[in-house]
User: Which sequence fits this backbone?
């Protein structure tokens, strides 16, 4: 595999931009594989009879796995030079085997902090059919323009996650 | 031996710190990439990762992989994490990181069910190959007893702070729970 890659830069992004959607058919294997990869052995993520006994219709995707799919969704768009700074999830409905998980997102804000870091807020909806399962806000840093430093090159004193403004969009 | 609070008000701010049993390593990263089919070269391509980030990093939201207590380990064979309540009482309970404080508060309050309504996560220093995290699990924001369609219970937040072996902050996660008993 070659070493070329996409690198989205801040000067290419504007509020209202839609990210390429991601569609994933969910199976029991998808759920269990995510639980195993996150080393999450809570039974509701691998044991159907347990899950039904505690009132859900089946085993369901755990949050780290949803985070993994969302992280992939974001960096498929930005390329590897994009660096995620924060993710805020609101869980409404679980995602089960048999669902087709759809991940869609829109840019809600772009801004530059006092250290010159370029930030993009993305509001993400994770849906199954007509049901909104999880609402997510993500902040990702991008290089300013082609050839500029990547956010990964920032030292801790220039990675000001603690100073980020609250998310503008409800999510 | 952990001295857990006996009074509800003493749980506010109560924290437990542990060094993780699991180091960041490539095979665990690869299993994560398999699970979410993520081809981002930062996580596996040494040449690209070195050029962009100074080396391979672990996927941003994968902290649990490098923080979750083993259900059983040969390094502490007399302890087990027994969700089902079926193991011999000869075992001592394992410290269930990264959310021991949440599980222990559930036990202490007798609230059997718990759901996560939201999680806020912030990411600072990246996780790199060979890192071993220190985890601080802390309870904040215990709410009043209330009843909703699920049952009667309380809200609380389990804040988890992760630092690496150099003392640098890696991540802060805030898990917002409602824990309850059904139909009460």
Assistant:
């Amino acid at each position: 595999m070659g070493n070329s890659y996409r690198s989205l830069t801040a000067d290419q992004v504007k509020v209202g931009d839609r990210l390429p959607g991601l569609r994933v058919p969910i199976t029991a294997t998808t759920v269990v594989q995510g639980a195993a990869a996150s080393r999450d052995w809570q039974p509701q993520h691998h044991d159907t009879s347990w899950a039904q006994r505690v009132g859900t219709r089946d085993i369901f995707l755990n949050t780290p796995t949803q985070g993994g799919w969302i992280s992939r969704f974001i960096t498929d768009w930005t390329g590897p030079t994009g660096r995620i700074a924060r993710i805020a999830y609101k869980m409404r409905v679980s995602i089960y085997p048999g669902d087709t998980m759809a991940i869609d997102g829109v840019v809600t804000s772009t801004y530059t902090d006092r250290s010159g870091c370029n930030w993009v807020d993305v509001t993400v909806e994770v849906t199954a059919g007509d049901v909104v399962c999880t609402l997510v806000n993500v902040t990702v840093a991008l290089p300013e323009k082609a050839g500029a430093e990547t956010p990964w090159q920032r030292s801790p004193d220039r990675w000001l996650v603690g100073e980020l403004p609250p998310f503008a969009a409800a999510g | 031996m952990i001295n857990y609070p006996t009074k509800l008000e003493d749980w506010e701010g109560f924290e437990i710190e542990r060094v993780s049993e699991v180091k960041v390593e490539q095979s665990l990263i690869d299993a994560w990439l398999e699970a979410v089919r993520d081809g981002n070269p930062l996580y596996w391509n040494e040449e690209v990762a070195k050029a962009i980030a100074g080396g391979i990093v672990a996927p941003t939201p994968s902290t649990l992989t490098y923080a979750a207590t083993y259900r059983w380990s040969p390094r502490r064979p007399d302890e087990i994490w027994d969700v089902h309540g079926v193991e011999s009482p000869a075992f001592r309970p394992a410290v269930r990181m990264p959310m021991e404080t949440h599980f222990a508060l559930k036990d202490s309050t007798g609230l059997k069910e718990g759901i996560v309504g939201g999680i806020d996560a912030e990411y600072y220093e990246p996780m790199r190959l060979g890192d071993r995290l220190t985890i601080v699990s802390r309870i904040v924001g215990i709410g009043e007893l209330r009843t909703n369609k699920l049952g009667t219970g309380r809200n609380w937040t389990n804040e988890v702070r992760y630092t690496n072996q150099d003392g640098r902050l890696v991540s802060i996660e805030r898990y917002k729970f409602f824990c309850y008993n059904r139909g009460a």
Notes: The two ends of chain A are 38 Å apart (CA to CA). Chain A has a mean pLDDT of 95. The longest helix of chain A spans residues 63-78.
